[in-house]
Design goal:
CATH topology of the largest domain in chain A: CBS-domain
Shape of chain A: elongated
Largest sheet of chain A: 3 strands, mixed
Main location (chains A, B): membrane
GO cellular component, one term (chains A, B): lysosomal membrane
Membrane topology (chains A, B): Multi-pass membrane protein
Radius of gyration of chain A: 29 Å
GO molecular function, one term (chains A, B): chloride channel activity
Pfam family, one (chains A, B): Voltage_CLC
Oligomer: homodimer
Chain lengths: 804, 804
């Protein structure tokens, strides 16, 4: 019956493979060191006949499986490779398990429970909003106070020493004041919680995409992140506090919604019904939005961020709650900061990033080409920045592996920052009259009486204040040569800083670089057309900032909303959009956004938005993982224990055992459902065996499973006596009785859509008669990736490796 | 094997059914006239044994099926019922059919085709942006010119007649000037294209949700809509031009992307590769966003609208293109309108709805409770508005069925509008000094020299200008009593107008009502606290407008973005958000948004965001449609023809015929794929039978199917000779070989998620051995709906009927 169609498939299939392979061969791309496709093809044609039964000794099980796994592992991946996926990352499970326990709970609790849950959700989102704002307020006020202290102290010594010729003193002081916080921050990150390094945005993105990044939403991470980011900014590094704020919001959300903390070993026994990946993800998405909202005072931008970066399946009520949390955050933070600045009633501090308000910015139609050019420059510079950062990260992966080396590296960059700043202040004579001073700590240096050094003004404040100065200072406040030198130096400083073992974001440095070159262009234009009123350098500083940031991160609509909200310049929306579109287009021609680059370098199996094109000739039977391990509907306890000990799989199809008199070597038996490793462990831990009927009756509830979420014990922590190993266990009430499955003849895009839209973790593949023949996991889908290189395209198949 | 688990299922299942039924009985809700659940239950337990084979005569086929269908049809649904789904609406098919023809095309065209398609997409979005802006510009300029003419003429006669005591003359003239355009608009809508009635937002929403509303995206509809909306505004009805703009954008998008027009019988043979539901939907989503962008000058709001109302599966690159189109629209429209107003360089007219720019609006923390109260009032008034409109619509469904009656009705409302306006002007003496006049046509009426009638000012301009006046007029421009009377009268006028046989939106009327009562509250507060500077009536007018609109339409985040963008008042975001959240919460307590109410009254099977809660006890086997009709993989042509003639189904599972020696009454044979009615018709039309191998070889391509999209011929238009009827046809290269399927034991939420996230049309249900036992369609999923009534909840099962 199927002969004809199968033949056609195979024919089409092999011919396309050929054409792709030849196109790959044409391309002398150095990154295509490895051709896993052939390797894989030979693997998938292998005759599969691994089946675990009680009579298979555990030793042989281990050997069979590990030999199979080894074929997919490649020990040596060059540092900086982007063509691999790491097996160290597991998937989150967004597909609810509709087993009998869940139905039981629903039946018992009824609609009142639905209403209660709904209220609890709103309440949690309220708490998320408030707590995120509190953390943001703490970070902001600490930074404000400590930097004031630092720069007032420096100013004092500089002012003293200029006349006394002891400028080495403030320089050393500057070094010391940079070293101390950077040392604390770097040690915290390197030794206590490495996942707190960087901005945290890629990690949150991956989490929302469905990848479990270990420890990413733990309270310890939050603590390190919060202190670390304060250290970064005080340490004078070219890093911002905005990205980390987003990560903090996500952690807060994950913490509050679960009603317990592993770090503090405290279970409040509340919100237990939210203890599953699916619910937690929703809260984290709200937390990330709150974080954006706190960082930029941009509630709409926050919601758009969580939609753009996070949600695969958009849900109106979730978005609505997210919006609510964002708003609460902005509002609370506004109250805190307004009170701190002594203007409580005004509510004029909606976010951490205060870029100052732009009054109406007029622009004329003939400026549109200028906007396009600004965007193009931003795209080019952004692509260049990303490439340099990529190279530096490769270097780091190769040489800076030890923890103490990472700390040293951070200190070196801190020293470099101070040195560059000091050298610029020392050598550049850029004096402006006092009075219209844009800085809190004007320094005279070698300027005349009543003047101050404009260079020192750029360095003797937080980068954020510098951005504000560049946006809003009146025409002529900044010397062109100063700005030009500053752009170049700060560009390299920022490239070197991102990726250090410090908590730091790149929004502010990018904005600062961009606003500096933007202002440079603006002031050049103003000199070319001195009579033109609309050519305001501040406006071009804003456009440059947008272009640079857009060129680096390549976010689109959310970034537009964030910038519009942060500058309150809605009438300026169109120019911003033009600039951001151009920056993205130009940048995407050369490489990917910086977050994506870093995600790829760690091999995180993140799923893109769409399946690769022209992949309809790749079938589920080709991409699925096999051999797999299946369980019978009623299974021997000892067998389960052995199995969990020797394989690392997380999902096991439950099958009716195949009929012994009709051997089918390609199938594992009729598919009945899917059970997870975590569920099996809870069953074993609580001794829910068929021989224990009284236990079964009394206390068997879905709560047992929630109690352990999300960190289940390992199989070695569960003690099962020898007698218990002879018991049987009926898996049917606990397994997911009807997970989504896919026919072996389905295509890769079909599997991809299912994974992406529904947030799956396991997708069993069945044959024509509904017998399991394999299982598709996130990595099997994510490994197919389209590569584009200067207009050419092809299909790439990533390597799967156990290297981080 | 399955016995135990099935027993458990049945037990749980029946017990929950009981509890739900009893809770429904408790509720003496008049709307629960019908209990389809019992009816349905008896139906689904029926013994199913309908199988179509060649030897079944077509007569008996018709009888069997129609007798089954009739059981689901209820002839008499009371007008205004909301508990039914109409069978008149089909689903769109967003799931691509990955058959051999598609693979063939991919193989032939390669990656160049992918790049070309991508460029074409961007180009189409550019065109959509420009064309939507052109239409918006045409509508706006026509309305501007014609209303100027109308009111200047009226002003002339009023000014003349006040002294000469001939005020009946301008009154009659007003009537006539209202009648003429309303007559044209009503006749166009009633006789030419009824789907152009109303705002079109619900229709676009349904289209994006996946329901095929007949003729909704046709060029004829666009023409009627455009002229109709001009007539509405000129006719002085309480309707706006914003909603129709969104619909227009959607039609433009659908038209351009298909490269052909059925109305003009012209096929440009371009963009043929976009001729499928999935691609078309993406363009329509962009068009709707462009429409919002044109209507409100709100590109971000537009994108949010298309996300909030449209997309189920969010896609970053689609959103990015949508954003591009929105921006192009705003920009083009800005150029057009700026040029029209003679200020080309300024670019200060981003959208049709020009609410005037708010300078910074200060607010104090103690005003927050006031914002909450404003939102609550908006929610209450909105719910009240919706309820009244619902009642009026019921009345219309019952009594105003004839086309001429609809025209008369529109004329009556037009007369009423003029009469109310004239009466108010005549009786209310609200005189303000000239000079600070907010209106283009000030009328003196009985006021003193140098004064004008503030009442006439409200009526003698478009509603949009009135909103602007209420937002921006200085304190004391409006008399409280005038406003109070105006609110009441306009409230009822707007209620009566929405749902007329005219193209008209409800944004502007709602904003006008809201701004009037908002200003009333603001002016009251200003009188209570005369020394308080921040209590600006214009600010409260804006909040009132937001509250009223939010209370009526219940949109959330997109509405916030739209209002912020339209008023350029970003610093005022927080108060707007508070007001909109309150309005939605309060309103949702009483009833649904007006669009949802109208959607329900027409029985459109729209899918909500989430499956009803506590429905995990409802299984796929309960909700699926059966009996169904299946086809064999190689099928007789005559049989297919007979089948298509006598059943209305659109999707047919293709099966291996069941083994004759093991009769299985509950299955239709092993599932092999799914073929659509439209595909079968194209196959028959092109005589692609197994006997025609030369045809098969030469010209068989996916283009054949695209040529006919979207309006395929009916089976009666295809002529098949008697000899041809004996031929066989191999369906395997054409069918979808691996559509998503569901196990019979899967739950309703699982089916729902699949439908919602992937935009399915048919979902075959299979048993444990992958044999088809039924099919789930959109209506089967949409019929389960949660009802909430003052805090109580329950599960409702809608009736399916053939009534519109």
């Amino acid at each position: 019956m199927t002969d004809m169609s199968t033949d056609v498939n195979v024919m089409i299939n092999s011919s396309i493979n050929d054409s792709i392979d030849s196109s790959v061969n044409d391309e002398n791309d150095t990154e295509k060191l490895l051709k896993p496709r052939n390797n894989f093809a030979s693997y998938s044609n292998e005759n599969i006949n691994v089946r675990f039964r009680q009579n298979v000794s555990s030793q042989s099980v281990v050997e069979t499986l590990s030999s199979n796994l080894r074929r997919l592992n490649v020990e040596e991946i060059p540092p900086g490779a982007t063509n691999f996926l790491s097996t160290n990352y597991e998937s989150l499970d967004y597909d609810p398990c509709e087993n009998h326990l869940l139905q039981d709970e629903e039946r018992k609790k009824g609609y009142k429970f639905v209403v209660k849950k709904n209220f609890a959700r709103w309440f949690i989102f309220l708490l998320i909003g408030i707590c995120t704002a509190l953390i943001a307020g703490f970070v902001d006020i600490s930074i404000e106070e400590l930097t004031s202290l630092k720069y007032s102290c420096l100013k004092f010594y500089v002012d003293q020493c200029v006349t006394k010729h002891c400028l080495w003193l403030p320089y050393l002081l500057w070094l010391a004041l940079n070293f101390a916080p950077v040392l604390i921050g770097a040690i915290l990150v390197a030794y206590v919680e490495p996942v707190a390094a960087g901005s945290g945005i890629p990690q949150v993105k991956c989490y929302l995409n469905g990848v479990k990044i270990p420890r990413v939403v733990r309270i310890k991470t939050l603590a390190v992140k919060t202190i670390g980011v304060i250290c970064t900014v005080i340490g004078g590094l070219a890093g911002g506090k905005e990205g980390p704020m987003i990560h903090s919001g996500a952690v807060v959300a994950a913490g509050i919604s679960q009603g317990k903390s592993t770090t503090f070993k405290k279970d409040f026994k509340i919100f237990q019904y939210f203890r599953e990946d699916h619910e937690k993800r929703d809260f984290v998405s709200g937390g990330a939005a709150s974080g954006v909202s706190a960082a930029f005072g941009a509630p709409i931008g926050g919601v758009l961020f969580s939609i753009e970066e996070g949600t695969s399946f958009f849900n109106q009520s979730l978005t609505w709650r997210t919006f609510f949390a964002s708003m609460i955050t902005t509002f609370t933070l506004n109250i805190i900061l307004s009170a701190y600045h002594g203007r409580l009633g005004d509510l004029s501090y909606p976010g951490l990033l205060n870029l100052g308000k732009f009054e109406t910015i007029p622009y004329q139609i003939y400026e549109i080409p200028l906007f396009v050019i600004m965007g193009t420059i931003g795209g080019l510079l952004g692509a260049c920045w990303n490439h340099l950062n990529y190279k530096i990260t490769c270097f780091r992966l190769k040489y800076i592996k030890r923890k103490w080396l990472k700390v040293i590296e951070a200190l070196v960059i801190a020293a470099l920052s101070a040195t560059i700043g000091f050298t610029m202040i020392y050598f550049l004579h850029d004096c402006k009259p006092l009075g219209q001073d844009p800085t809190k700590f004007p320094i005279q240096m070698y300027c005349n009486e009543g003047e101050y050094s404009a260079v020192a003004a750029l360095w003797f404040q937080t980068p954020e204040s510098s951005v504000r100065s560049l946006f809003h200072d009146p025409k002529g406040s900044h010397n062109d040569i100063t700005l030009a030198i500053f752009v170049v130096l700060y560009f390299f400083l920022a490239v070197a800083t991102f990726g250090l073992s410090m908590s730091s974001g790149l929004f502010i440095p990018s904005l600062l670089i961009g606003s500096a070159w933007g202002r440079l262009i603006g002031s050049g234009l103003a000199k070319l057309f001195p009579n033109c009123v609309v050519l305001n350098p501040g406006k071009y500083a804003l456009l440059g900032a947008a272009a640079q940031l857009g060129g680096v991160v390549r976010m689109t609509i959310s970034l537009t909303a964030i910038l519009i909200e942060a500058t309150q310049g809605i009438s300026f929306g169109l120019p911003l959009i033009i600039v951001l579109i151009m920056a993205k287009w130009v940048g995407d021609f050369f490489n990917e956004g910086i977050y994506d680059i870093h995600t790829q370098m760690t091999g995180i199996p993140i799923l893109p938005w769409e399946a690769p094109p022209l992949s309809n000739n790749i079938y589920a039977s080709e991409i699925m993982s096999h051999p797999i391990v299946t369980l019978n509907t009623v299974e021997n306890v000892g067998h389960i224990v052995e199995l969990l000990k020797c394989v690392t799989f997380n999902g096991f199809p439950v099958v009716d055992p195949p009929n012994s008199d009709e051997p089918e070597i390609h199938s594992y038996g009729r598919f009945r459902g899917l059970i997870l490793r975590s569920q099996l462990i809870v069953l074993l831990q609580n001794k829910i065996f068929n021989k224990n009927p009284e236990y079964w009756e009394k206390s068997l509830s879905i709560k047992l499973f929630r109690k352990e979420y999300p960190r289940y014990p390992t199989i070695d922590q569960v003690t099962i006596s020898e007698e218990e190993k002879t018991y049987m266990i009926d898996l049917r009430p606990f397994m997911n009785p009807s997970p989504y499955t896919l026919q072996h003849s389905a295509t890769l895009p079909r599997a991809f859509r299912l994974f992406r839209a529904l947030g799956l973790r396991h997708l069993p593949v069945v044959n024509d008669t509904n017998e399991v023949i394999g299982i598709i996991t996130r990595k099997d889908v994510a490994r197919f990736r389209i590569w584009k290189h200067r207009g050419r395209m092809g299909l790439d198949e990533l390597l799967i490796t156990n290297k981080i």
